[in-house]
Design goal:
Strand content: 15-25%
Structural class: alpha+beta
Strand order of the largest sheet: 10-11-12-13
Radius of gyration: 22 Å
Order of helices and strands: EHHEHHEEHHEHEEHHHHEEHEHHEEEH
């Protein structure tokens, strides 16, 4: 094994911040092309339904695109068709250029559907596909004649057809062609993308190369758990690929002073001289941001453990229902529990928890970022 390169924790944080494009205010420019570039660079942008503030996918893009408009993402999905929705570690927007890497996952789901879809029969799915083939895209609002059923899960629907639509989606028969809020419209996947048939699936080697490239691009330093999140270990193909890249000197093992975990990185990244980080650059981050969602990695790199309490009973919460971490420079300095009051036209600070010693200047930096964040929330 090649001798590891040793760096300090500050350098490790700096590399991840740069890879995540949180070390400058506007790394991708503006307009729909900026949103597309951001999604292509990060590899995915997670979707979530919680709406006490702006939804997570819009929030993550605004963090990196100061002039981001919600219509930009809609244009990419429905008009340009350069992004699509599928499951990464969660439902996410993914670049259409990467579609072939998800086709094997779709095929695996078709061959062995989740028990979640146990009530759906092949005949149900075929009838739905035939309807869409003849009548065009549908949303759950377009499905009539359902006999309502009791929910068997808090996230389930009382309309059985919703689960058939989801089955077709995870199978790769359907794609979400547009969203109106969180209401999804489904279209036949080949027809949406202008294909004569389903795209050819990537090989296992192709998928391994994709996962490694995505991780290196968006994380800088990678290890098994960061590449495979939320799984902890590499697939055999990915482990073989990493070993091959290390032997070929395309990857170098990296040790961080004081840490037990080992990482890999591209030599050019380790040696890159990055510009000085503005110590007053502030971001109010989504709990689903790529920098925050890998909780263990976040704690190791930044010494900050994010607590997500939306599913915790009120009497057991430490910080609040939907707390947002505040990054200033390379430090997490506060946690804010915010709620957008759209009727009153303001963002409410329900709780403000300092993680570091408060100073007048630091408070001003966070308040200035809150003002910018509020303008985005309210569409100003």
């Amino acid at each position: 094994m090649k001798r590891p390169v040793t760096i300090d924790a500050a350098r490790a944080r700096r590399l991840w911040l740069h890879a995540s494009r949180l070390d400058t205010r506007a790394p991708f420019g503006a307009g729909p092309e900026a949103a597309r570039a951001a999604i292509e660079h990060l590899g995915y942008v997670q979707i979530d339904t919680i709406h006490v503030i702006e939804r997570a996918h819009h929030h993550q893009l605004f963090t990196r695109i100061p002039d981001y408009r919600r219509a930009d993402l809609a244009a990419l999905q429905s008009d340009e068709r350069s992004v699509f929705e599928y499951w990464t570690h969660a439902l996410s927007y993914v670049p259409t250029r990467d579609l072939k890497f998800f086709v094997p996952q779709m095929a695996a789901h078709r061959a062995r559907p989740s028990p979640w879809f146990g009530r759906c029969t092949p005949e149900d799915l075929e009838a739905l596909l035939t309807h869409i083939r003849k009548e065009g895209p549908v949303s759950i609002r377009d499905v009539d004649g359902d006999v309502r059923v009791e929910k068997d899960h808090p996230w389930a629907s009382t309309k059985p057809s919703k689960r058939v639509l989801e089955l077709g989606f995870y199978n790769g028969d359907l794609v979400i062609s547009r969203r109106d809020g969180m209401v999804k419209t489904y279209e036949l996947l080949p027809r949406h993308f202008g294909l004569r048939k389903h795209p050819k699936p990537a090989t296992e080697d192709n998928v391994a190369e994709y996962l490694l490239a995505r991780g290196l691009r968006a994380q800088g330093l990678v290890n098994g758990s960061s590449l495979m999140h939320p799984r902890l270990t590499l697939t055999p193909r990915l482990a073989e690929l990493v070993e091959k890249r290390v032997k070929g000197r395309k990857l170098v093992p990296v040790r961080v002073d004081g840490w037990d975990s080992a990482y890999w990185a591209e030599r050019a990244i380790v040696d890159t001289e990055l510009p000085a980080l503005d110590p007053e650059l502030a971001h109010i981050l989504s709990p689903f941001d790529p920098l925050v969602i890998q909780r263990g990695r976040l704690a190791q790199f930044f010494g900050y453990e994010h607590v997500f309490e939306a599913y915790v009973s009120k009497d057991k919460r430490r910080f609040g229902y939907f707390t947002l971490p505040v990054l200033v420079g390379d430090r997490f300095v506060a946690v804010l529990d915010l709620k957008t009051d759209r009727a009153a036209g303001r963002v409410l600070v329900q709780a403000w928890h300092w993680l570091v010693e408060e100073t007048p200047r630091l408070r001003q930096i966070v308040e200035d970022e809150l003002t910018r964040f509020e303008r985005f929330q309210l569409g100003k």
